[in-house]
Specification:
The chain is α/β, with parallel strands linked by helices. Helix content is about 45%, strand content about 10%. InterPro entries: HAD-like_sf (IPR036412), HAD-SF_hydro_IA (IPR006439), HAD-SF_hydro_IA_YjjG/PynA (IPR011951), HAD_sf (IPR023214), PGP-like_dom2 (IPR023198), Pyrimidine_5'-ntase_YjjG (IPR052550).
Length: about 230
């Protein structure tokens, strides 16, 4: 392959965000009068996915996303709980979680031998830096590009153009790897960057967004790119 730079999404691609979120929410029951049982955590997943989709589509701001989740959760389950400092408590716990997707570290180790690796994420900066360091994978990334710092969220072309500008490289030199068709793959495609979809749940792609490559496990990427 002629790629020089590999852009890799973090949440749900390298970091096991579902597991990390579950663990953090379970710990939150120590701070608030709420059990965070399986039903409640499942509702959080669905709500959170919906809100991040709205952020991608520029229907809400990042601050609105962050500030609405716990009030929405408690309201849905008819609980009146003070949420004044709850985000600070939640992120203090979440940032310490660092479970990885199966095969993530081995895949990064192998790709790092041949390519220059960069994380490309819509996640919050403190969380991404803390979790990648905690998982001891930060060493594989030359830099973590964050939409929070760039000023544009994936799939906005300006997110990718900012990276191209900083690295002074054309789109053909990049490959974007991610689990989200609507964010990672659509954004890369719109920016004329080749894309690889990590389809871990083996979904049927019924969208108009088509990746160049598709895998259902991370180690498959090594075989494709070697």
């Amino acid at each position: 392959m002629n790629y020089k730079y590999i852009l890799i999404d973090l949440d749900d691609t390298i970091l096991d965000t579902r597991a990390n979120t579950r663990n953090a929410l379970k710990e939150m029951s120590e701070f608030v009068d709420f059990p965070f049982n399986d039903e409640q955590i499942q509702y959080w997943y669905q709500m959170n996915d919906y809100l991040w989709k709205q952020l991608e589509e520029k229907q809400i701001s990042r601050q609105e996303l962050m500030n609405s989740r716990f009030p929405n959760l408690f309201r849905h389950f008819n609980k009146k709980i003070d949420t004044t400092n709850i985000n600070q408590q939640y992120f203090a716990v979440l940032n310490q979680q660092h479970e990885l997707m199966p095969g993530a570290k081995k895949t990064l180790q192998e790709l790092n031998k041949t390519y220059r690796l960069f994380a490309a994420s819509n996640g919050t900066s403190d969380k991404q830096y803390s979790q990648t360091a905690g998982a001891k994978i930060d060493q594989y990334f030359e830099k973590i590009f964050l939409s929070e710092n760039i000023g544009f969220d994936k799939p906005d072309k300006k997110f990718f153009e900012s990276i191209e500008s900083e690295l002074q490289a054309p789109p053909k030199d990049f490959l974007m790897i991610g689990d989200s068709l609507s964010s990672d793959i659509a954004g890369a495609n719109d920016s004329d960057i080749d894309s690889l979809w990590y389809n871990k749940n083996k979904k049927v792609n019924q969208s108009h967004v088509k990746p160049i490559f598709e895998v259902t496990s991370l180690p498959e990427i090594i075989n494709i790119l070697q």
